[in-house]
Amino acid sequence: MTTIGIDILKAKQLLEAGEVVGVPTETVYGLAGNALNEDAVLKIFQVKNRPQFDPLIVHTDSLDKLSQIVTEIPPKAYQLAAAFWPGPLTLLLPKSSLIPDLVTSGLDTVAVRIPRHPLILELLSILDFPLAAPSANPFGYISPTSAQHVAQQLGPLIPYILDGGESTVGIESSIVGFEENQPVVYRLGGTSVEAIEEVIGAVSWRSHSTSNPKAPGMLKSHYAPRKPLYINDKERILRRFPTDKMGALTFTQPLPHLPLAHQRILSPSGDFAEAAKNLFAYMRQLDALPVEAIYAELLPERDLGRALNDRIRRAAASE
Ligand code: TXA
Ligand code: MG
């Protein structure tokens, strides 16, 4: 069984011994292992039950160290790094031979980011290797935003979880790559498209695609709670289930006909950042309620609303 604590040296020792450890980041909790040790990386895939065709993000704490992980940082990537790191942005860059193929699922780019949480930054600063870390959830389930979420699902499988409190951003990093030097957003996340475009100008983006060879992990059915989650046909869905067997996830206001105890309001003041911070925790809470189904409202399609809607649509995709 796992231990939850704030002992960075213990986390360091376990990682140096090739173990995997739950780590806090500002986006979501990660399941970290030595990115340069194939056995540790294999353990990450096994613990998550994640297919090996779905590559991992490599975390480091400085641009200096990044230069050993990637062979090139194009000017626009550098501008983004300067503007958003440490923070919720991942860049796809040409990988160096130091990074095992297992980490990138054989792709010639590696996903890299400098996270913003002080505990993982301190941990990275005392390690002499970068950390491969996917979100610390079983493959296909909602990402964890607290040490307790990690323990609930992966507790029996990992020795230690570093507790950094609740993740402040609450959704995963945005992923940006380059095709013929043109920036492409592959995953909408904690850094909005608007903020990215302010730094490097217009970008194209791909969201919610079922088959995306550049980001094979972005399967449609993802982030899914176990209860069926509906986003369309509100009236029909509300008629279909008894009122007391229905949960709801809304942006600013509760639905009038359902019990308040079965509803979660992402941000009463309509603040996207607050909504992002609450999204996954609220999905978990709704999943645990004695309801048969969940109705979720989409947010306005701008700012972080786009990334939140992307998560909500994927959660509903199993319908
Ligand atoms: O915020 C985050 O990014 C969190 C924290 C822990 O850093 N990590 C995270 O990792 O969300 P994960 O493994 O759950 O999602 C990483 C995504 C996957 O969809 C994967 O397919 C994509 O990144 N990815 C990784 N390497 C890639 C590459 N070389 N090319 C394209 N997509 C890649
Ligand atoms: Mg994930």
Describe the protein.
The chain is an alpha/beta fold. It folds into two domains: 3-205, DHBP synthase (Alpha-Beta Complex); 229-315, Rossmann fold (3-Layer(aba) Sandwich), CATH 3.40.50.11030. 32% of the residues lie in helices and 18% in strands. The chain is built from eleven helices and 15 strands. The protein has helices at 8-16, 38-48, 63-69, 75-84, 101-104, 118-126, 147-154, 193-200, 234-240, 272-288, 304-316; strands spanning 3-5, 21-23, 30-34, 57-59, 89-94, 109-113, 131-132, 160-162, 174-179, 182-187, 204-205, 229-230, 246-250, 263-265, 293-296. An eleven-stranded mixed β-sheet has the order 1-8-2-3-7-4-6-5-9-10-11, sandwiched between helices. Strands 12-15-13-14 form a four-stranded parallel β-sheet, with helices on both faces. Strand 2 and strand 3 form a beta hairpin. Helix 1 (8-16) crosses helix 6. It is globular. The two termini are 34 Å apart. Residues 134-135, 143 line the site of magnesium ion.
Summarize the structure.
By secondary structure, this protein is α/β, with parallel strands linked by helices. The chain has helices spanning 8-16, 38-48, 63-69, 75-84, 101-104, 118-126, 147-154, 193-200, 234-240, 272-288, 304-316, and strands at 3-5, 21-23, 30-34, 57-59, 89-94, 109-113, 131-132, 160-162, 174-179, 182-187, 204-205, 229-230, 246-250, 263-265, 293-296. The longest helix is centred in the last third of the chain and has 17 residues, at 272-288.
